[in-house]
Amino acid sequence: MLACAEDHNALLARALGDDGRILRLPHEDIYSGNAHALAAYRRMLHGQVAAGVPGIRLVGALPLDQRPQQWAQWHRYEAVFNVAMDAMPLSAVCAYDRHEISDAMLDGVKETHPALLTPGGLVVNDRYLEPATVLRRTATTPGNIVSDSPPTLVLADLADATRLPELRARVRAALDGADGREHPRGRFAAAVTEVLGNAFRHGAPPITVRLWTTPIRLEATVTDCGQGFDNPLAGYIPPGNGSLPAGAGLWVARQACDTFEAFRSPTGFTVRLTTALPGPDTAVGPTGPATADSSTARADRARADARELARQLHAGIENRLVARQPGVEVPTGG
After folding, report:
1. What share of the chain is helix, strand, coil (3-state, %, to 5)?
2. Strands 217-224 and 207-213: what pairing?
3. Which of 230, 314, 202, 252 has the alpha carbon at shortest distance from 39?
4. pLDDT digits (tens, 9 = 90+) for 230-263
5. Which residues are CB-contacts of 196 (< 8 A; sequence separation ≥ 6)?
6. Cα 49–55–60 angle (5° rounding)?
7. Which sign does the torsion angle of CA 193, 194, 200, 206 carry?
8. β-strands 268-276, 121-124 pairing
9. Strands 268-276 and 327-329
10. 183-189 contact pairs (CB < 8 A, 24+)
């Protein structure tokens, strides 16, 4: 599996002789968000194993966003990946270009990979930290990143769980835009109401929901007076083996928004959700925005790749990948 930028996928495939066992993944579709990427890989790997594939090798490259808030999301993803894929017959190489990442980002890379691929071969990484440790170290702290404008909707002093259907309807109504963006707004409404339901089930009243909407961004906070959850992996991996039993609300919420952050404050426990909306010149596709200056050919090719990937995963792949001892590797050079 190759999950790098399109031109890098092509170079890697060519170097491997364009073997029929090579599967190129559409980079923009896989890495649309950290929780989405984890879920996408789990679905793909489960599909490969179900089709009889004995082993999978993956070369992937994350989107390199130098903004601290964005990199923090992918730093957490790298930590969780080790847990989410632990039982899979997978050997993964995460490719980073040393010329493009900062020293702080490189430190984060070394914290989240148990082995390093060096010019001299594979070596054990003595700077590797357990995923839970990394997630606790990068836990979100309260910060004012919401719009300076008043909230679009405030639901305060909530204590009666029987009102949940009414409250869900009010959240959906506040997000019911008629500007062609119903899909991301609907997903965001689902994320907010899942967190609200979780607060009723596991938190302590009173509960407060605040929702901000702008032409380019949706944001919400759900605060209750309880202690919150202490498991930093909560919501990253679905309960059960790919099914969605009761208790999967946090997982659903992470899937349905761009960022999901949780933190304690003097007044209680807060979950903050955000989703970016496409701009006026952006077309919305099945998995997210595609910039207007992307060529039609590239968009068509990405859609075709995604359709072919789905076909192979559901129908089974005739050419099986070569088995390899599972492990996680990361090159220190680009």
Report:
1. 40, 20, 45
2. antiparallel
3. 252
4. 777 787 776 655 444 445 778 888 888 888 888 8
5. 158, 164, 167, 168, 171, 207, 209, 222
6. 100
7. negative
8. unpaired
9. unpaired
10. 183/284, 184/218, 184/275, 184/277, 184/278, 184/284, 184/288, 185/218, 185/277, 187/256, 187/257, 187/275, 188/218, 188/220, 188/256, 188/257, 188/273, 188/275
Tokens in use for 183? Answer: 């899909």
CATH of 153-276, one of 3.50.50.60, 3.60.40.10, 3.30.565.10, 3.30.70.20: 3.30.565.10
Which residues are within 8 A (CB) of 179 and not within 5 positions of it... i.e. 6 or more apart?
Answer: none
Task: Kindly report the number of other CB atoms within 10 A of residue 319's CB atom.
Answer: 11
Q: CA 276, CA 212: separation in Å to the nearest integer? A: 12
Burial of 233 (0-12, 13-18, 19+ CB in 10 A): middle
Is the distance from CB of 76 to CB of 134 less than 8 angstroms?
A: yes
pLDDT above 50 (res 138):
yes
Token code pair at residue 44: 């793909």
Residue whose C-alpha is closest to residue 275's, from 29, 79, 32, 68: 32
Buried b (16+ CB within 10 A) or exposed e, 258-274: bbbbbeeeeebbbbbbb
Task: Give me the residue spans of the domains in the chain.
Answer: 2-138+294-329, 153-276
For residue 272, the cross-strand partners are: 221, 261
- Per-residue pLDDT reduced to its tens digit, 98-134: 888 889 899 999 999 999 988 888 999 999 999 889 8
Q: What angle do CA 243, 40, 191 make, to 5 degrees?
A: 65
Residue 214 to residue 277: CA distance in whole angstroms: 9
DSSP lists the bridge partners of residue 3 as: 60
